[in-house]
């Protein structure tokens, strides 16, 4: 940008200026601005640019928001209106940050699938400041369970530290058909991604409160030790495989069976509610 400066005959600098059209004289002339006026003009231009960017963002969000409103998942439907709007924006933002990849012949990831998967992630993170699991930029979707050449068995989902979340769409849908059985593939895999994201040193590193996480880890370790002596329990045995599985399995019951969870394990439930900053048993979605 050119730097204009003007000096009067006396040698002092004129204040900032703008060009003004004089209708009476049919000519252009300089209109002097005070420093305050110049600052206000800069602020006005900045606000206008922000408003335009916000409008463009809303236009990009619109198809995802409309799809979410059409689907009406249970968690979203239970939110009060002001939180629904916040949930909608987070879901749309999540979708736009990810690359969804179809796996399998004649199988295509639709906009509806993208929104459903994003809603699972946002449901888990909704009580926190916006978290978009940025390390996991790609979401692979298979039509059904897929064979892993590493484990030599079929999987319904996994989280790969190379930046992939992998889902079987059939199992994902099944998890939402029964919302009270504590089995939900979407929440399970997003819980794994959340658990890992918190320790990956990137722009979202360390978003879980360290004191709350420590409390959760201690209670989880104690419960896993008890389950080794007594296999029967509220949480399915898969939870006792390691701390990551315990967190993921607990998250499923936390959202799908909150009242039973809080009755069987009140300390554990409260620790998870404090960690995720929401309490579904009391219909509190953002603490």
Structural class: alpha/beta
Terminal residue distance = 48 Å
Strand order of the largest sheet: 3-4-8-7
Overall spatial form:
globular
Percentage of β-strand residues:
5-15%
Mean pLDDT rating: 88
What does this structure look like?
The chain has 287 residues and is an alpha/beta fold. It has a domain at 208-287. Helices cover 51% and strands 13% of the residues. A four-stranded mixed β-sheet has the order 3-4-8-7. Strands 1-2 form a two-stranded antiparallel ribbon. A two-stranded antiparallel ribbon has the order 5-6.
Give me a quick take on this structure.
The chain is an alpha/beta fold and 287 residues long. The chain has 10 helices and 8 strands. Strand 5 (146-148) and strand 6 (153-155) form a beta hairpin.
Helices and strands, with pairings:
Layout: E1 17-22, E2 27-32, H1 35-71, H2 74-77, H3 81-97, E3 99-102, H4 111-125, E4 138-142, E5 146-148, E6 153-155, E7 157-160, E8 164-168, H5 169-177, H6 185-197, H7 210-229, H8 243-256, H9 258-264, H10 266-276
Parallel strand pairs: 3-4, 4-8
Antiparallel strand pairs: 1-2, 5-6, 7-8
Helix pairs in contact: 1-3, 1-4, 3-4, 4-6, 6-8, 7-10, 8-9, 9-10
Name a few traits of the molecule.
four-stranded mixed β-sheet, two-stranded antiparallel ribbon, 287 residues, globular, 10 helices, single chain, alpha/beta
